[in-house]
Amino acid sequence: MNNSLERLIAGIIATLRTDVIPNVSDAYARGQAIGVIDVLNNIAPRLEWARAPLAEAVAQRRAAVQAVRALVPQAPAGTAGLSDQALAAASSAALAAERDRLDGEISDLIAWAQSADARGDVAAATALLRQHVHDELTREMKMTKKPLFAEISKATAGGQAKIQDKSQN
Amino acid sequence: MSAIDTFDGESVRSRLLPYLHGQVGGDVEIGPLKRYTVGFSWLTFGFNAVWSEGGIRVARDLILRLGPPSGIFSPYRATPEFLTLRSLAGSGVPVPQVYWCCDDSAVLGAPFFVCAFVKGDAPVPWTADGGPAFDEAQRVNLGNQFLGALAALHNFAWRDMPVAKIDGATDPAQTAHSEIAFWEKRMRKWSSRRYPMLEWALLWFRAHAPTAQRISVVHGDYRIGNFLELDGRITAMLDWELVHLGDPMEDLGWICLQAWRGRSPYMCHMFTRDELKSKYEALTGLTVDPAALHYWEAFGTFKLAVMHLGASFCFETRDFNDLRMAGMGAQLPRMLLQLESVMERAA
What we know:
The complex is a heterodimer. Chain A has helices at 5-20, 27-43, 51-71, 84-89, 92-113, 122-141, 149-156, 159-165. By secondary structure, chain A is an all-alpha fold. In chain A, α1 (5-20) packs antiparallel against α2 (27-43). Chain B has helices at residues 9-24, 79-88, 105-108, 136-155, 175-190, 196-207, 249-255, 273-284, 290-317, 323-330, 332-346; strands spanning 28-30, 34-36, 43-53, 56-66, 98-102, 112-116, 216-218, 227-230, 233-237, 244-246. In chain B, the strands form three sheets. In chain B, strands 1, 2, 3, 4, 5 and 6 form a six-stranded antiparallel beta sheet that branches. The radius of gyration of chain B is 20 Å and the shape is globular. Chains A and B meet through α1, α5, α6, α7 and α8 of A and α6, α9, α10 and α11 of B.
């Protein structure tokens, strides 16, 4: 996910309040929608992103960086990351920050490998980086559900309203 | 004057009325503004207006397009789209007639333009089962019109027209570099996180940038979902907010994106890649270099991935509560895998 958990929950609540509940005519359904807001308000302070996938993301990136640096020790060093001890105790937010730092380091390694300064077994390092990027995206995809764009479009543009709603955008 | 809520029809209407009064030079009546909730960027309102021209009563169904401060591409300018539509009036590109345009946010709270309401339905690329959006006859009929309009756009003699003032690159060797710079700037703005796949793509695009055969007006978002169809006829091409001068192959590559066809074998659900190439070449006299087409398809996939970052950014930081934007952000891994795949084909 690309948005913070806090903002997603706030956005869901705002959408229910502003765009959904005023347009729900059935009393029971309206009560249930308000119930969703009530539950979200109470679970929000107790939630954080799942730690295990973030820890795995960090571990995979660290392994890739170490393997690449073994092939091309001349590559410029990255910024210091979390120690093993700090990682073990890190919150989800700290793990996400470490994942992002490592993505930056991997991006720098990719750029260096394609630059005139590249030395060592650059071809093997490039292949390893390419495989790592592919594997990580594939791993992320396993947690990514098929988008509901078709259903959303149909719901937005149903019946006669479809002709008008889609008329200028 | 009080602050204006650009999402609220009544609020916008109260400011629109005196503006239109000034534009038509007399009394004008406008009906309630109806907001159309499609799209992720510009706000769209429909309304009816009545005024007098030379003593003759004029009544029109109109569309007001506003670029809100909270939108993905904010800060917006209405002038480029307005000048483009004005220039293309009467050409082979079906566009709505434009009336008025203003980039001064003090007037309605955001840049805006007013154009004619055009009837039609906008077929979308997303089907329930991922299959075809059209039957065979529709596919051929709409495909011919869609490509005919694109060829008319790319053949359009723009140099002595108002559209010559819009942004873009006029050096054939710089068209790709100009687009790379444009979208990299937005990527950096919208995401402090660096995605290795996107960084890789940027390096590749710079190293393989093609030279344009011709400088044309490029729509920038020419695809299924951005045209209106009524009784088998394309009545208008819409969403010109990314219009610029550049390499016409850019529009062709965009048409080929996986995102616009799902599992259909047809680009934008309308033609095979070979049909696209042969028909376009016959209509424009240009040669479609398969390498350039793959390049621009890859670049288009990159651009769409960056738009996903923009949707996330907009949802996160601008109180834009449209959950479709957050949903787009969640699909970034899918976009990046598509980018990897199309880059491998292009290499």
